[in-house]
Every structure is written in structure tokens, then in C-alpha cells.
Design brief:
Two copies of one chain form a homodimer. With 212 residues, chain A is α/β, with parallel strands linked by helices. Chain A contains ten helices and nine strands. The first copy, chain A, has two domains: 75 residues, Arc Repressor Mutant, subunit A, CATH 1.10.10.10; 114 residues, NAD(P)-binding Rossmann-like Domain (Rossmann fold, 3-Layer(aba) Sandwich), CATH 3.40.50.720. In chain A, helix 9 links the parallel strand 7 and strand 8. In chain A, helix 2 runs antiparallel to helix 5 and helix 3 crosses helix 4. The radius of gyration of chain A is 20 Å and the shape is globular. Chain A binds a DNA duplex (22 and 22 nucleotides) through helix 4 and strand 2.
Amino acid sequence: MPQSNHRKSSVPAATVPRLSQYLRKLQEIQNRGTTTVSSRQLAGEVGTNPAQIRKDLSYFGEFGIRGVGYDVDRLITELRKCLGLDHSWNVIIIGSGKLGTALARYRGFQKQGFNLIGMFDSSRKVVGKNRGGGPVMSTEKLEPFIEKNRVDIAIITTPAAVAQMIIDRVVGAGVPSVLNFAPIRAHADKPAILRQVDLSTELMTLSFYLDD
Amino acid sequence: MPQSNHRKSSVPAATVPRLSQYLRKLQEIQNRGTTTVSSRQLAGEVGTNPAQIRKDLSYFGEFGIRGVGYDVDRLITELRKCLGLDHSWNVIIIGSGKLGTALARYRGFQKQGFNLIGMFDSSRKVVGKNRGGGPVMSTEKLEPFIEKNRVDIAIITTPAAVAQMIIDRVVGAGVPSVLNFAPIRAHADKPAILRQVDLSTELMTLSFYLDD
DNA sequence: GTGTGTGAAAGTATTCACAGCC
DNA sequence: GGCTGTGAATACTTTCACACAC
């Protein structure tokens, strides 16, 4: 029984990140005071095709009104439900250097329902200091912390050299998903969900498309 | 005449980021002292299919030896050429907060041929300070700086509120590619290449795949 | 035997185009 | 008239499987 959720596996992988982009734009539109939006308008703003949006939404239900468009409030609520943002997730950050601190201080974090419940670092110098996510704990305390607290997402911002070891440890301790910012191609053995954010890949991809 | 380069447009978009991952693994393999690698071995390490690697490489040429595999040094050289890393690119960072500073201090940067030639910030308090990329300049000096220096890539780490305006300004001044870390869905009018790195999208994507 | 390079097949994703509803 | 929801068509990507080279 690998994927328990029938609904999720039938949604194309490419659709999921787009949903979050629709959500962001819709929140912007909501802030402007607009109450109704068509797939055409939304597509114009996020830079995609109207049919793409309608198709993406159709995997989850019928949220629009023909001839009219979508109610902005309603669609925001539905999208948050689709993305699992209708309850909150507990997040830890491992590595409290500049990058870890930048992420911890990111305000949109809590606003979207992600609770930063702990930060970890191996350096004696920073343990106990506040880097935006409460007092930094020693990485030695990782496993007991994960035992005692439900941790849904571990964000890795350690140096490359230790990143894979840290990932093995948090996954081994039962954390179901990992977001890796360390510049390595990481892997996870257990059925953990792993995503990578990688400056160097992004720069090289730009480089490819630049004219010589 | 939109895309001038015939070679590039025939390479699938999905192939490009993978090339950079192959390159990273190959550099690791090279450091271990291994001189030859097969598509099977490399695929095992990056977590993909051997045929995928061979197909990806086939868009650029024939780099292997049948019955043997690939010479690691040779393949690294070829991949760097494919990705446009055989010469160096000039990069600026706009926004010298924690994130901008973290990126500026990332060592792999220079190592792969990206020269950080300037950092900018709108705050009087940081202008003149060194955040890892020489003295921070005022964002007022952006356009004259771009006039005088070839800038290939602009990395945006400003607050969301000003990010789109900054992108418009650098693209307007002639910067051909932008890597945006600000939490907005940005767009560029001119034929500039734009890539987005987005913590909130990554977190929401994980959220989608987590069990309720 | 081993492993590349590559057409052909299978699998995914995007876009079209239109019936149906407001 | 306008816009959604969706099957059908197109485009893109990955994987298979085998001829060919070492």
C-alpha cells in the first residue's frame, strides 16, 4: 500500500506547484478588493493558458460559474483545501546560518499555516541564540525532539558535507518530508517526500539559455 | 527571429536542469578518483534511469565509448560546454538582506564560473558595507552600473513589494536573465529569461503530498 | 560480454474546441 | 454574449529494446 490517497495520485505532478501560484495571485486579487475572476484574467496574471487553469481545477471539483467565472473567496478556500493548507504543519529548520535565518524570518511562512517549531545547529556558538524560530537547539537533540513533537517538514540549510547525514537522521526518526537547500543531490530511503532547491542548478539553467 | 540558437531550442526543457545534476555528481565522482562511469552507475547516484541520461546526452553529441562507459573528465568538460559554463557569467544581487548575503557567500558560485560583480540595496544603512560581493551599492545606481558593465544574470532577493519594479528596471536596462527569490509571481516583458525560486510553493507542494 | 546511441512505444502534460449553462 | 468543464487532439517526456561498437 504505497500511496494511500487515491485522490492525490490522480493529480498530475505538474499541477501541484501551479495551484500554489494560483493561490498566491488570488490572494493578491482579493487584497485589491476584486470578488470575481475568470480563468482568462487569472491566466493573464500568472502567465499561463486559461485552459490550463480550468483543467488543473477540474481534478478537484467544479468551483466556477459558467458565464461568470470564479468567486475569489470561494476559490481561495477550495485551493487551500486542495493543497492541504486547511490545517497547519509543523516545520523545523536545521542549519541556522544566513540562509536558515533568512527562511525562518520569512513572514509568509506562518501566514500560510506553517509553524516553525524548532531550529537546530551543530555549532556551540549559536545554540541558545534566537534566529527567528526560538532558541536554536543542538543537532544532538534532533531525534529526541522529533520523538516528542510531530514534525511534518524538515528544511535543510546545513553545509553540503553534512546534509545527507542530517537527512538520513530526520527521515530515520520519522519526519515524512524534507526540503533540501544544501547543494547536493540528496536521496531518502524511507518513503519520505524530498524536494530540492538548488541555486547552482538554477544558475546553470539560465546559463544554458543565455547567448554565448 | 525570436530564438537565434538552433541547437538550444531542440533540447527539451526538462533535460537542462538534469544536465547540471549530472555535472555535480560527476564532479563528486571525479573527486573520489574514479575515471570512468557508465550511465547505469551515474543513474544510480542521481536517482534516474540510465536511458534518460543517454538520451539527454544524445542531444549534444556522442560522448561515451560503447562497452565501456564515459570518461569522467571528458564528460565534465562536455557538460560544462553544453551548459554554457565554458566561459564566465557576470551576476549581480539586488537585496542584501539575509538571503542575498547567504547567496553571495555561497562558495560554489565562483567555482562554477559565476562572477558576482555587484550587490545592491535600497537601504542607506547597508550601502557601502560588504555582504560578500564587494561594497553594497545604492539601487539608484542600478541603471548606470548595467550601462557600464555587462550583467548576464540579476538575482532578486528584495522584499516582495518592490521585486517586480526592480525586475522591470534591470530588464529594461538590458539584463537578459533574472533569478527571482522574492515571493511573487513575477513577469518580464522583454525577451528576458526569468526563473523563480519560491519557498512558499515548495512548502505547499510538500503539504499536498503529506497525509492529513 | 558490456554498455552506448537511438528509433519506436508508452506514458504525461498541455492546448484546442465546443457543448452546456449563466 | 461570456465563461466553465471536459473529451479529443496535440505536444512533450520518459522508457523500452535492440543494433552496433568495444
